[in-house]
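Pipeline run #58 for the internal structure catalog. This entry was flagged by the ingest filter as a single-chain record with no existing model, so it goes straight to prediction. Upstream metadata was stripped on purpose; only the residue string is passed forward. Reviewer on rotation: M.T. Logging verbosity set to normal.
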Amino acid sequence: MENLKTTPLLAEHERHKALIAPFGGWQMPIQYEGIIAEHRWCREKAALFDICHMGEFLYRGDIVAGGLEDVFTFSVKSIPVGRSRYGFLLNETGGVIDDLIVFRLAEDEAMIVVNAATIANDFAVIHSRLKNGALLSDISDATGKLDLQGPLSRQVLVDAFGPEIGSIPYFKFIRTTILGAEAIVSRTGYTGELGYEIFLPADRVVELWQLLLNDERVKPAGLGARDVLRLEVGYSLYGSDIDEETTPLEAGLAAFVNFDKEFVGKAALLRQQQEGLGKVKVAFQVASRRSPRHHYEICSEGENVGHVTSGVFSPMLGCGVGLGFVKPAVAAIGSPLTIRHEAISMEAAVVELPFYKGGSLRS
């Protein structure tokens, strides 16, 4: 544990008696009162997550001339100021180096939010693709990030900081002042519920955490609940459902690839489109309350056709759900599958995403 990084909120997590465990090179809260209870609170009220382990880079320079436009699978120059966009940083073979979100702060300024375990590599790769004096700064250590998620999150923030936050549309953000510091409040999240991501100086995170938890509608939630929440709506987890050996096409995420622009890995994806996919990601629902687990085998008619990448028991559906990669021949909606691991066997079927459709995401 001594080599792991910590967020500014470690003492707060310990005060709330959180279970702390390693995640992506960090000591992070896995649960407080329990994963199911925290999951339910987020679905019904407002849950507060410490996401300070995520990485943030600040880009300054002309979007096109500085090379940023050609770095990702989506267009940065076409993002209006005040909006954000999700997509991928790819390698030459089309594999996903990371999935990320770019926030267009100004005509010549953008913030790139990346996953915790990939911060150093992402920075090196993006920096290597820039040109003409464009500046890229790693502001991760100076930046704190809290996510408030759940159907009551809008009213909580409006009551705390005023009505401006209440009018933010999905995937838009505002630059504002919180606790006397410059902050970004974004209508984004990873739970399938109405929610907000708040970026502010790291030295103000503890104060904001305490302020929000003073509201009886808000409780802290750990990464355990966050994983169940994201999987119920089918969001991919980097390192499990997508990685450098997997392309967006294989992962069913072609909607976040703009083939009308240049980006590293485009030629590989075009070849893959022509030659066909050897594996595809599917969502499956188990016919029992059993939980599929990472690396369990996926079988069809007795043949091993793939493996599970993510799986949990879904409290909202009352059964096991999961994501995994299979041969394209068994990927059609409704296809029967068997999930196996040693003596464990569970029947399942391929279904459409999201598993859970009742969230408040676009409320």
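catalog note: Helices lie at 10-15, 35-44, 119-128, 153-161, 205-213, 223-232, 266-275.
catalog note: The chain has a mean pLDDT of 97.
status: ready for reviewer M.T.
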